């Protein structure tokens, strides 16, 4: 193969949209596509994808989780990479599929091969594609919440901050206890609503104390939880997925604006 052909080859990326992005905030998916394409990738969104199976898996329903995992692997096996705009879903794909499907040699092999190519969006951009900056402008003061799965399972901490600091006009103001859980935790907030509310109440106090204009994170579930609490407390602040800011796609109303998505 000629050198020019090698240089022009683009890695294929299957975008795992996630349930929440698909149903609640599609703009995050469009922002992810834009970022991936600008990083030199050929992006497709397999129509056969459904839920990654995490809610079933966390609730002990291994049978349904098993079926959903196999469906996901089948939908994405033809791609070089699988990328999700969610540390929570990416953690399920890359860390838990091998365990979930490890009881059978054939499914175990497929799960391990799949897990190796599964990544969270911002980590993929920085750690795999080597992106060091984004060429956009954003006027405002933002603060960033480290979602539990992204931080603790995937080691996502510096990557989003590195790209955010490259944005002209953006000021990143760290909140106190940015690494502390927001209280969402998937089904946790349903099973233990009082504890969840106490946790998010401390989080919104720290968010407000940062005196930022906008709250960012990499997981939509966390963002919806925090946006809902901020709204109920009567606190005015834009809440967005980090991909929307990195892609320069902030025309969409903020999460929780006008009483929606909260």
Task: Describe the structure in your own words.
By secondary structure, the chain is α/β, with parallel strands linked by helices. It has two domains: 10-126, Rossmann fold (3-Layer(aba) Sandwich), CATH 3.40.50; 132-259, 3-Layer(aba) Sandwich (Rossmann fold). 50% of the residues lie in helices and 13% in strands. The chain has 14 helices and eight strands. The radius of gyration is 18 Å and the shape is globular. Mean pLDDT is 94; it is low at 1-6 and 258-262.
Summarize the structure.
This protein is of the alpha/beta class and 262 residues long. It folds into two domains: 10-126, Rossmann fold (3-Layer(aba) Sandwich), CATH 3.40.50; 132-259, Rossmann fold (3-Layer(aba) Sandwich), CATH 3.40.50.
Estimate what percentage of residues fall within beta strands.
Answer: 5-15%
Order of helices and strands: HEHHEHHEHHEHEHHEHHEHEH
Q: Give the mean pLDDT.
A: 94
Number of domains: 2
| Tally of separate helices | 14
* N-C termini distance: 52 Å
Major sheet characteristics: 4 strands, parallel
Q: Please, what is the oligomeric state?
A: single chain
Helical amount among residues, as a percent range?
A: 40-55%
């Amino acid at each position: 193969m000629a050198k020019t052909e090698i240089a022009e080859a683009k890695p294929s990326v299957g975008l795992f949209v996630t349930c929440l992005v698909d149903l609640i905030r599609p703009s995050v998916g469009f922002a992810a596509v834009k970022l991936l394409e600008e990083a030199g990738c050929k992006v497709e969104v397999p129509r056969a994808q459904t839920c990654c199976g995490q809610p079933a898996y966390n609730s002990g329903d291994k049978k349904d989780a098993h079926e959903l995992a196999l469906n996901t692997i089948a939908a994405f096996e033809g791609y070089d990479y699988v990328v999700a705009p969610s540390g929570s879903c990416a953690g399920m794909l890359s860390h838990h599929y091998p365990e979930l499907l490890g009881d059978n040699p054939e499914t175990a092999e497929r799960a391990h091969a799949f897990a190796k190519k599964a990544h969270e969006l911002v980590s993929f951009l920085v750690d795999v594609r080597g992106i060091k900056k984004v060429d956009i402008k954003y006027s405002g003061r933002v603060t960033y919440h480290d979602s539990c799965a992204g931080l603790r399972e995937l080691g996502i901490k510096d990557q989003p901050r590195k790209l955010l600091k490259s944005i002209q006009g953006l000021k990143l103001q760290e909140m106190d206890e940015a690494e502390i859980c927001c209280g969402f935790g998937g089904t946790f907030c349903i099973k233990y609503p009082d504890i969840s509310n106490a946790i998010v109440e401390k989080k919104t106090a720290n968010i407000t104390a940062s005196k930022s204009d906008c709250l960012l994170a990499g997981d939509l579930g966390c963002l919806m939880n925090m946006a809902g609490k901020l709204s109920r407390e009567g606190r005015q602040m834009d809440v967005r997925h980090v991909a929307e800011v990195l892609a320069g796609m902030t025309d969409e109303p903020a999460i929780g604006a006008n009483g929606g998505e909260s």
